[in-house]
Every structure is written in C-alpha cells, then in structure tokens.
Amino acid sequence: MEMENQEILKAEIDKRRYRRAKLITQVKCEALDREELAVTRDVSVGGMFLNEKKPFPSKSVVNLAFRLDPTAPLLTCQGEVVYSINGVGMGVMFTDVPAEVRQALEKFVDEAR
Fold it and tell me: How far, in whole angstroms, is CA 22 from its chain's centroid?
C-alpha cells in the first residue's frame, strides 16, 4: 500500500503544470455536507495539496477559503479533489476561481521566486 501511494504522488507531481510556492496555512474545506480545517504546505495557480486524515473522495467538489498571509484578505474558490489518500490528504485542482483570487495567487507565486 505504501509503495502504491508513493507511485500515485509521483504521478501527480509529474502532471503539475504550475510552479508551486511554499505556503503553510489553514484551509477551510466544505464538501458533502461536511466542513474540515486542513493545512497546506504549498500552493499554485492550479491548486494545492491539503494534509487531512479523512480527505474527501476523488471527484468531490470542494469550496475552499484561505489566506496567503495572516493579514491578507480571505480568498474563496472552488476546486475538485483529483486524488485522495486516506490518512494523508488530498490534491485539489482549482476549478472555479474568481479573477481577483487568480490574480492574488499569480502575484504570490511570482513573488515567491
């Protein structure tokens, strides 16, 4: 099982199209009549991986709310769980991102270089 999870993660990393920037922050996730507070370690314009012991299943539509820094405005968008590993977390691809959220993400990632 461990080897299978490592292969899934490697496949997902290889598929990344966007550069990631380090971001350790809490993310409020709502899906399937459930609300969870997860933690991310990085973000891209295309999505994020969320550490969560009981992740939502793949293909779940998730409403997300997070801040790029403690004083920044709350960003909200929608995503889809593209992979889920029980006890580890879930990879979320952003699907419905307002223009101002996308601009904030682009600026954050660009400035993280």
Answer: 12
